[in-house]
Write a structure and sequence with these properties.
heterodimer; A: alpha+beta; disordered C terminus; B: alpha+beta; Glutamine Phosphoribosylpyrophosphate, subunit 1, domain 1; eight-stranded antiparallel β-sheet; five-stranded antiparallel β-sheet; 13 strands; globular; hydrolase (chain A); Proteasome_sua/b (chain A); cytoplasm (chain A); threonine-type endopeptidase activity (chain A)
Chain lengths: 329, 289
């Protein structure tokens, strides 16, 4: 008769946690940052169709890192949960807190009972009436829920990148500022995950500091303004926002020229200029770009970024240069 | 159970099961008691023949839809308008009910028939389109939306036979063709594409007559709004269940356009002007009175 080996519960949990942590660290990071007009999400994702950031409900969005099939399943479950709840009660009764709890229970149960924990880490964020009422919940593979304030970095080299964000982020930043911060941080984290960023920014991604990455971007003349500070191409970024001022469905993806304009704004006139894009949101009470199927009809006054200014803006940008250099060392 | 959260607080297995992008299918699988049509079984044959369904629940009446512009060119779309009256037998149940709703960003749905079921059906239809959009990350085609609505009407057939019928009118902007299109339905879920204009509900006979005379090719948006309001005015003239514009209480029809820019409800001020023009012309015994 064979005896099962005794494994202490501590060891069992530790093994599972290590397994999940390793899987999550393999992917690219997702950065979630609060800004004055809502909550912004950014990640490096060359796919146009396989999203890591998605809409769950009117004011609620979802971001995930880890195994795609696992978090996609959770995302669909979240949409079903929210839609069913909104249909049974009322749209205003669907909250990020309830969804985060349901996710936490699910992740926790799977962690304990299934043969393999889910290799995912999630953020459930809800934009409130004011920035004080914004909610960002971070959920880990074992069902732990953390109520975060202001920002979250998860996946990849989350700890290193998190320190960069911690240094540079402050409440009340404008959309352009937080996006430049997010992309700068993401760019500094590139290079280690297998495959690299590829594309035009590939040359810059290997270097440790943004100074190197910035020059790489400048030299890539073919990519023009579409290469951002961190050496990431706009086409390789997945960026979305929950805009407080949108009437019902707050979720909006930022792609193409709109994103390039936001990222290229000059660092010096951040305050007035970066208000531009976020002040299109108040205007959205009048007929505005519908939040459906990508961003059809999203029009903004182009910020007309100049190639020469770009280099400067990298330097002025919060969280760039030395801060990052010290972090990556 | 109702909304289907188990006692453990974790998401039920049905939520995590890979499958359809349809919310209605999910509901039929997971919580069928929440589907509007399913209650017919519980109702049984008891209601039929005993009570006149028309006096049992409020009924919504006339909806008109008008397409305008030249397909493929800018300034193309469709207008949908509904009066504001709901009746219960010979009583006016509600004089400010709204029967035209945005189905999603590029389509509108108007309802005639049993108001309670119809409003619930519209809510479910809106959710169905939004659910698909969120799960799939893309919009359904206009034909896909129209078919989906047909399927949902079919689900209501048992209740329709008992007298609680819902007959919607669906209009949307087809992003592929660049044109406004109109679809009508029967109680069995049959879907028919209508050209130029259409009307459903108790006053539809009169509204259709008006539409035939007033509609012309190449109308612009404001012209189409005027035609729709005028057709409702004619329907209210001859049908007791259709309410005309109430200038005393300032209750005007719900009028919405769907174009490439999305769904837009026409504002009260704009409608007031349209209504006043029509009333003024008719008071003078104009040609169209």
């Amino acid at each position: 008769m064979t005896m099962p080996f005794y494994v202490s519960p501590e060891q069992l949990m530790k093994d599972r946690a290590d397994f999940a942590r390793k899987g999550i660290a393999r992917g690219r990071s997702v950065v979630v940052l609060a800004y004055d007009g809502g909550i912004a999400f950014a990640t490096a994702n060359p796919s146009r169709a396989l999203h890591k950031i998605s809409e769950i409900y009117d004011r609620i969005a979802f971001a995930a890192v880890g195994k795609y099939n696992e978090f996609e399943n959770l995302r669909v479950a979240g949409v079903r949960y929210a839609d069913l709840r909104g249909y049974s009660y009322d749209r205003s009764d669907v909250t990020a807190r309830g969804l985060a709890n349901a996710y936490a229970q699910t992740l926790g149960t799977v962690f304990i009972t299934e043969s393999k924990p889910l290799e995912v880490e999630l953020v459930v964020a809800e934009v409130g009436a004011s920035s004080a009422q914004d909610q960002i919940y971070r959920l880990t593979y074992d069902g732990t829920v953390a109520d975060e304030h202001g920002y979250v970095v998860m996946g990849g080299k989350a700890e290193t990148l998190g320190r960069h964000v911690e240094e540079a982020w402050r409440p009340g930043m404008a959309l352009g500022e937080v996006l430049r911060l997010a992309v700068g941080v993401l760019g500094s984290g590139e290079g280690s995950p297998a495959g690299g960023a590829g594309g035009a920014g590939g040359a810059g991604t290997g270097s440790a500091g943004t100074a190197g990455a910035g020059s790489g971007a400048g030299s890539g003349a073919a990519a023009k303004a579409l290469v951002t500070g961190g050496g990431l191409d706009v086409a390789q970024l997945e960026v979305a926002v929950l805009e407080r001022a949108r009437p019902r469905r707050a979720f909006r993806r930022l792609t193409g020229q709109v994103l390039a304009d936001l990222l290229a704004e000059d660092g010096a006139d951040d305050a007035p200029d970066a208000d531009g894009p976020s002040s299109t949101a108040p205007g959205s009470t009048t007929p505005d770009a519908p939040p459906v199927g990508g961003t059809p009809g999203v029009k903004q006054a182009p910020a007309a970024p100049e190639a020469g200014d770009k280099g400067d803006s990298e330097g002025d940008k919060p969280g760039s240069g030395d801060e990052k250099e010290s972090g990556t060392d | 159970m109702g909304i289907g959260e188990g006692t453990s607080g974790r998401l039920p297995d049905a939520f995590l099961r890979p499958g359809s992008s349809s919310f209605v299918d999910f509901l039929a699988d997971h919580a069928p008691d929440l589907l509007p049509g399913r209650r017919a079984a519980a109702l049984g044959g008891a209601a039929a023949g005993v009570v006149n369904p028309a006096s049992l629940a409020p009924h919504a009446t006339t909806i008109v839809a008008v397409s305008y512009g030249t397909p493929g060119e800018p300034g193309t779309g469709a207008v949908m308008a509904g009066d504001r009256r709901a009746t219960m037998g010979s009583m006016i149940a509600n004089r400010a009910i709204e029967k035209v709703f945005p189905a999603d960003e590029f389509s509108a749905v108007g309802i005639a028939g049993t108001a309670g079921i119809a409003v619930e059906l519209v809510r479910l239809f809106q959710l169905e389109l939004e659910h698909f959009e969120k799960i799939e990350g893309s919009l359904l085609s206009l034909d896909g939306k129209a078919n989906r609505l047909g399927t949902m009407i079919r689900g209501n057939l048992p209740m329709a036979i008992q007298g609680l019928a819902v007959v919607p009118l669906f209009a949307g902007y087809d992003l592929d063709r660049g044109a406004g299109r109109i679809f009508s339905y029967d109680v069995t879920g049959g879907r028919y594409e209508e050209h130029e204009h259409y009307s459903v509900g108790s006053g539809s006979v009169f509204a259709r007559g008006a539409l035939k005379k007033l509609w012309q090719p190449g109308l612009d948006a404001s012209g189409a709004v005027r035609v729709a309001v005028e057709a409702l005015y004619d329907a209210a003239d001859d049908d007791s269940a259709t309410g005309g514009p109430d200038t005393v209480r300032r209750i005007y029809p719900v009028v919405a356009t769907v174009t490439a820019d999305g769904y837009r409800r026409i504002g009260e001020d704009e409608l007031e002007q349209v209504v006043e023009q029509i009333v003024a012309r008719r008071r003078q015994g104009g040609a169209l009175a």
